[in-house]
């Protein structure tokens, strides 16, 4: 038997506890960063079963002789699991009371570095016990996979009923949440699926497990890896940090919040090298009587008198867990007009977090600035859209030999 053990810098006592409780672990390979090397070498002097110590570089993704050696050894021994002795907090779910899960988010760089070396199974050990996580995919493997190819990022707005969706069957498609309600009518499944809304993840994960096709790669925030059970899942380092909002990323190691899952999907498409990135179903129009009455700034037309500082202050107040729990969640009965493309989208007792279009617009403008700087087109082909952050294009014109007409951004003001 061969065992790979990661030696942490700040929780060496947990690694020592694992060693003391696993007397027979066969030949042991210790993986360590330079900062913890000295501590690991002391262990090697005490334990004859330590085969070797392999040192990882501080810069994730940098190839060194020891990284290559580790990758070769994993392949030769046909071992996919590494033991991770980690100290971590327990966090409460935000919309399910009296339920918590391990806070693995801060350890994302460690998982990523070991995943890049070839590990797919992570046996996490701490004073609460042992749990194994299988991570099949990370965003690193998708870098540039669709370079120069167009893709469609599809929202869930009613406007999807105004266009011919069947022509997207051979296209690269990104969808989210309950987009699968349209798959049977449209005649195909989407290439990729994603979710970022904490309420949707926590309350409706079982539904997604049942209905999102296995072959679709499923993107979700890395912090929910202990909670979700998606087949063909790909956890992403989705940052909820708002201190420098808005930010856009085309890097595989981090994605930024945009107050809509569409923003996460656009960033993933950028990582994949897609160009152009075409939006449809982004109506960006909400008609919710309950929330409009209590906070009209969140829906429909936003008063010009409300400046960004006010909106930011409101968001900072709402972003904490306790504040999320007290948000006025809306249901189907709160809508004055259809909010989604399918009549069953909001059926039953499903609850939704109030949309924040002003915040989303700020993020989308940031994405458009990135696109202009990088020479990438992000186009909005949604009929009747209220979102003017991107150049508009006719959906039907996209299926000729080329995109025939794009309205200049300057005419959208």
What would you note in describing this structure?
The protein is of the alpha/beta class and 413 residues long. The chain has two domains: 134 residues, Rossmann fold (3-Layer(aba) Sandwich), CATH 3.40.50; 230 residues, sialyltransferase cstii, chain A. 27% of the residues lie in helices and 19% in strands. It is built from eleven helices and 19 strands. The strands form six sheets. It has a seven-stranded parallel beta sheet with strand order 13-12-11-10-9-16-17. Strands 1-2-3 form a three-stranded parallel beta sheet, with helices on both faces. A three-stranded mixed beta sheet has the order 4-7-8. The radius of gyration is 24 Å and the shape is elongated. The C terminus is likely disordered.
Name some characteristics of this structure.
413 residues, alpha/beta, Rossmann fold, sialyltransferase cstii, chain A, seven-stranded parallel sheet, 11 helices, 27% helix, elongated
Give the SSE layout.
Layout: E1 2-7, H1 12-21, E2 27-33, H2 37-46, E3 50-56, H3 65-77, E4 81-85, E5 90-92, E6 100-102, H4 108-117, E7 121-126, E8 129-134, E9 151-154, E10 172-176, H5 183-186, E11 192-194, H6 198-211, E12 217-221, E13 233-236, E14 238-239, E15 255-256, H7 261-271, E16 277-280, H8 289-294, H9 308-318, H10 321-325, H11 357-374, E17 378-380, E18 392-393, E19 406-407
Parallel strand pairs: 1-2, 2-3, 4-7, 9-10, 9-16, 10-11, 11-12, 12-13, 14-15, 16-17
Antiparallel strand pairs: 5-6, 7-8, 18-19
């Amino acid at each position: 038997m061969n065992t790979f053990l990661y030696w942490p810098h700040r929780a060496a006592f947990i690694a020592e506890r694992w060693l003391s409780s696993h007397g027979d672990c066969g030949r042991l390979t210790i993986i360590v960063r330079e900062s913890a090397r000295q501590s690991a070498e002391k262990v090697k002097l005490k334990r004859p079963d330590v085969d070797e110590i392999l040192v990882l570089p501080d810069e994730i993704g940098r190839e060194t002789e020891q990284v290559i050696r580790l990758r070769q050894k994993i392949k030769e021994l046909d071992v996919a699991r590494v033991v991770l002795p980690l100290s971590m907090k327990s966090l409460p779910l935000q919309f399910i009371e009296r339920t918590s899960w391990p806070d693995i988010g801060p350890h994302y760089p460690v998982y990523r570095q070991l995943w890049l070396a070839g590990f797919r199974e992570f046996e996490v050990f701490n004073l609460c016990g042992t749990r194994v996580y299988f991570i099949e995919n990370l965003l690193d493997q998708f870098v540039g996979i669709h370079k120069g190819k167009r893709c469609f990022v599809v929202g869930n707005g009613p406007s999807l009923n105004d266009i011919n969706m069947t022509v997207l069957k051979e296209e690269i498609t990104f969808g989210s949440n309950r987009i699968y309600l349209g798959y049977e009518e449209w005649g195909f499944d989407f290439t990729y699926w994603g979710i970022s809304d904490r309420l949707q993840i926590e309350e409706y994960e079982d539904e997604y497990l049942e209905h999102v096709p296995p072959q679709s790669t499923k993107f979700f925030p890395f912090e929910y890896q202990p909670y979700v059970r998606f087949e063909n899942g790909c956890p992403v380092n989705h940052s909820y940090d708002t201190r420098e909002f808005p930010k856009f990323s085309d890097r595989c190691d981090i994605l930024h919040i945009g107050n809509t899952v569409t923003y996460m999907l656009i960033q993933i498409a950028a990582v994949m090298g897609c160009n152009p990135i075409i939006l449809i179903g982004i109506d960006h129009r909400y008609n919710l009587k309950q929330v409009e009455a209590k906070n009209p700034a969140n829906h429909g037309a936003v008063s010009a008198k409300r400046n960004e500082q006010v909106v930011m202050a409101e968001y900072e107040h709402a972003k904490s867990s306790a504040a999320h729990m007290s948000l006025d969640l809306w249901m189907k009965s709160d809508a004055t007009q259809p909010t989604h493309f399918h009549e069953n989208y909001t059926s039953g007792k499903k609850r939704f977090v109030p949309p924040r279009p002003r915040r989303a617009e700020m993020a989308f403008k940031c994405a458009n600035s990135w696109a202009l700087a990088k020479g990438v087109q992000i186009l909005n082909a949604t009929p009747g859209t209220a979102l003017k952050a991107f150049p508009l294009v006719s959906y039907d014109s996209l299926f000729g030999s080329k995109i025939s007409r794009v309205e200049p951004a300057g005419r959208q003001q």
